[in-house]
Fold this protein.
Amino acid sequence: MLTVQLGDRKRATLEKIWVAAFFLASGGLIVVAFILFEEKPPLRIGAHHWPGYETLFYARENGWLDERRVRLIDTPSATDTMRAFQQQRLDAAALTLDEAVRLAAVSREAIAVILVFNFSLGADVVLARPAFADGRTLKGQRIGVETTGVGLLMLAHFLKAHGLGIDEVVIEPLTADRHEAAWKNGHLAALVSYEPYGSRLEKLGAVRIFDSRACGHCIVDVLVARASALERHEAALRIVAQAHFRALDEFRRNRADASFRLSKYLGVSANETDQIYRLLRQPTVEENHLLLAGKGSPLWQTSMEISQALKSFDIVSEEWPKQNLRLSAAFLPQ
């Protein structure tokens, strides 16, 4: 008697066991074949609830992501996504381009930008209490900001626009999921945030004094994947890209219904959700192909401009390995 023992980890990776028994009438011989198909682990994508990434959650809700190949993991903030990516707990991540640059600067392997979700045209904001509506009055005041995420880049543009230096304000590190509680606490004069938190904070009396419209295309949201995942999860990455554009098309064709369904993720009304999406520009498939066309593309130029801004804050070094950041349109629909 043949006994095959499988450990728990091995057993968990087997999709199924097919047992085929062939009976040969002449001798009654039984041949038993065990064919073990070891299923590849699914692609692990991390994303928090930023409006530009909601196409992924919308696609999952509609069953457009093959759960055997793609596992979408909700994270509380960009900081948590970046940490999970650095700790090898994610194969791909939805992040801003500056966050991708920061990861590439410290990564042991290359990181590829494979999809552009959106450009922020006012969805990233600096909010203040009414007494500090003039940004110049924030000198010496406490400002909350997610220092490990895009917030620090927004703060840099804000301070430059108002003639302030980073050493002239008091920075309090805060991940986005803590913004509302920190604002209610009352000890912050201003807060660097983004939608949907921005809309919620305005309901609490915060005043918008600066947003991403003032810095052009400085805030770009992208999907990145580590180089080792590009070949191993090629089919899954294509599924994700197709699902994103399918969701985007659905949103454009049936905006009212999509706004209603997405509002539950964003924690605001359907009407507010619709208004939030007017603060984003979401590139088409054709635009994505142009943006991801390599080092001569507009997105590469933007990434180098972002790199310069990050260097000015000593967030990345002058010598960071730029070959660690790549652009690839290989996974986009044709």
Observations:
- The radius of gyration is 24 Å.
- Confidence is low (pLDDT under 50) at residues 1-37.
